[in-house]
Design brief:
By secondary structure, the protein is of the alpha/beta class. Among the domains are: 144 residues, no CATH class; 75 residues. It is built from eleven helices and four strands, in the order H-H-H-H-H-H-H-E-E-E-E-H-H-H-H. Strands 1, 2, 3 and 4 form a four-stranded mixed sheet that branches. Strand 3 and strand 4 form a beta hairpin. The protein is elongated and about 100 Å long. 20% of the residues are buried.
């Protein structure tokens, strides 16, 4: 038989495959499985005793490498076919929940796989079209938009499910969080978290809060339930409950009820001078806001003129920093004086 008449399947079955990229393009998955199974059977025969009474083919290192390489080739082939398989299942009438169950994943994850596959197929279509006007491989605009419509349907369904879950869970979650107005130990936090879903978003408040003018305060952690938005401005936009932890300074000594009442207040200004200055100024409260600004400037002057200046290698650099610190101090004094004289805009 001449080389021109060699059957491709027979040639593949006879070839040594020690790397996945040695598999010819377009090789059927069935051929990959058959060749890997044959190598696996020969390797399995190695477990037979040396005096096994029947003639068997035993595996060698080539079979072991072939099993690895063909296994990887099979994995890549199946992975590359997942997108088209998802598309086919949807076209034939499967729902996203069924597709997700078949892949043992979520509908959102399956929809994202379809999106990535569809984008790649559209790119392939136009690349091949530029080479051949008769190309029909890949997805044209109409087919691509149909896939994006299916993806949008999955996102909308996920958003609806998330909203339903939020509506159902919110009362129970609010009650659990409200029952722990202050969390002072790891054990108390653990007890709260055990009542909340593992996937609930967690965030930390940007600034500590405190009663203004209270001389004796001690910090505590105040947990509260907030609505978090995911998928903003997309078909998948939805709200879900999230846990936010805020550090609050409460009166001390005081009864637990009094401390809890302070911890749960949502009108407490920030504890630090800079965020507290922003709190007051954003509300048009110029005098307290400017006084806090003056304190911030005083602290900056200290950092520049003493801390930073003492770390410089050259005396000249330290001297320049101290000069700048004096300028900042003068600015703090001027802002402090303005705080006593400035007039606020009437409400």
């Amino acid at each position: 038989m001449s080389e021109a008449h060699i059957d491709p399947d027979e040639a593949f079955m006879a070839a040594e495959i020690h790397r996945p990229d040695a598999v010819p393009a377009g090789t059927p998955l069935t051929s990959l499985v058959e060749k890997r199974s044959a190598a696996g059977l020969r390797l399995l025969n190695n477990r037979l005793p040396d005096d096994f009474p029947h003639q068997v083919d035993r595996g060698d290192v080539g079979d072991a490498l072939a099993q690895l390489a063909l296994g990887e080739a099979i994995r890549r082939t199946v992975s590359n076919q997942r997108g088209s398989a998802i598309r086919e299942a949807l076209v034939l009438g499967a729902g996203w929940d069924q597709v997700a169950a078949a892949l043992d994943t979520t509908a959102l994850a399956a929809a994202d796989e379809l999106r990535v596959w569809a984008e790649g197929q559209r790119t392939l279509y136009y690349r091949l079209l530029a080479e051949d006007p008769e190309n029909r491989i890949g997805l044209d605009d109409e087919a691509y938009e149909a896939m994006m419509g299916a993806v949008a349907a999955a996102l909308e369904q996920a958003a609806a499910d998330a909203h339903d879950t939020y509506t159902q869970q919110a009362p129970r979650l609010r009650a659990a969080v409200a029952a722990a107005p202050m969390v002072d130990t790891v054990g108390e936090l653990r007890a709260l978290l055990e009542q909340l879903p593992d996937e609930m978003p967690l965030s930390l408040d940007d600034h500590h809060r405190a009663l203004p003018g209270e001389p004796d305060q001690v910090h505590t952690i105040h947990p509260r339930l907030v609505a978090t938005v995911s998928g903003l401005a997309t078909p998948a936009e939805s709200k879900q409950p999230g846990l936010m932890l805020t550090q609050v300074y409460v009166p001390f000594p005081a009864e637990d009820e009094e401390q809890a009442a302070v911890a749960t207040r949502d009108d407490l200004p920030a504890y630090g001078e800079l965020p507290r200055a922003a709190y007051h100024l954003e509300r048009g409260e110029l005098r307290p806001g400017l006084k806090d600004v003056a304190e911030v400037l005083e602290e900056l002057a200290h950092l520049v003129g003493e801390v930073a200046a003492d770390c410089t290698e050259h005396d000249e650099d330290g001297s320049q920093l101290r000069v700048e610190a004096k300028r900042i101090t003068h600015a703090a004094e001027r802002v402090g004086k303005l705080a006593d004289t400035v007039e606020e805009v009437a409400e």
